[in-house]
Specification:
Elements: H1 5-18, H2 24-35, H3 42-54, H4 62-72, E1 76-77, H5 90-96, E2 98-99, H6 101-114, E3 119-124, E4 127-132, E5 138-140, E6 146-148, H7 150-160, H8 176-194, H9 197-232, H10 236-247, H11 252-267
Parallel strand pairs: 1-2
Antiparallel strand pairs: 3-4, 4-5, 5-6
């Protein structure tokens, strides 16, 4: 069990940096554990998601998942206390079977992934929904798994934001990092409204770490682009120098990849 916020933060940023499609259940549970490290055992909670998925048959499809979560288990949107911090804590959402669109979307995607059902969260402005991996179906997890057409999605947006029009970019799937940032933004807002200062500072600190991790990835990516251009011109030593300099300014996990690439370039000089 991860006991310290430092360990939890390291695990979260490693997942986000190393994999474009990490387990949404794990990253969301790490956010929960960061806020309550003595209460949340991430491995145990992942086991709960496994158990939920185990209730689906080997050939389960989206409709089976919807029936399990929203009929049999009665997951639904919390309309009574929408801004409760518990609605942004995945372990509590799974236990209470109540949540906000974002956390319910994570539940659907995480359980679906474990049952071989490919789903993606879609971050409409102000309302997260779920789409199949091929983009052919959309589901409102806040409304007991109601199927949505594109017109329905457009109506959701115009209801929440009069005058705003649905665009294709709004229908794009959310990356795991975007899910984490949105979850932390929700927690920041909740704790600001409630005046819970220590919880607010924890959420702000984790959000800063997630942003800093992305900045380091961008910096490393830029160094790799420059090195590739130098290597294409036969300037292998200069390319390796570029990577090694960049490695001095980023996290160790990111630096390791840069240094390994520099080593390969220098090997070609021999």
């Amino acid at each position: 069990m991860l006991r310290s916020r430092e360990e939890i933060t390291q695990r979260l940023t490693q997942l986000l940096d190393a994999d474009q499609s990490p387990d949404l259940g794990e990253v969301a549970l790490l956010v929960s554990a960061h806020g309550r490290p003595e209460e949340v055992d991430v491995e145990d909670e992942l086991g709960t998601l496994d158990t939920l998925a185990g209730q689906l048959g080997p050939d389960a499809a989206l409709d089976d998942l919807i029936e399990l979560l929203f009929t049999d288990l009665d997951f639904r949107g919390d309309v009574d206390d929408y801004y409760s911090p518990d609605n942004s804590r995945l372990d509590v959402v799974v236990r209470r079977r109540r949540g906000i669109p974002l956390t319910l979307a994570v539940v659907a995607c995480a359980v679906g992934a474990r049952a071989g059902i490919g789903l993606m969260p879609v971050g409409l402005p102000g309302h997260v929904i779920v789409a199949t991996s091929d983009g052919s179906r959309f589901v409102d997890v806040f409304d007991k798994g109601r199927s949505l057409s594109r017109d329905d999605c457009s109506k959701i947006i115009t209801t929440l934001h009069p005058g705003m029009q649905l665009t294709e970019s709004m229908m794009s799937p959310m990356a795991a990092r975007a899910v984490v940032v949105r979850m932390l933004n929700n927690l920041v807002g909740v704790h600001q409204r409630r005046g819970t200062r220590s919880e607010l500072m924890n959420a702000l600190a984790l959000r800063e770490e997630v942003h800093a991790s992305q900045i380091e990835r961008d910096r490393a990516g830029g160094a790799k682009d420059v090195a590739a251009a130098l290597a294409a011109e036969g300037k292998l030593a200069e390319a390796a120098d570029q990577l090694e300099r960049a490695a001095q300014d980023v996290d160790a996990s990111v630096a390791a990849g840069l240094l390994a690439q520099a080593t390969r370039l220098r090997a070609k000089l021999n």
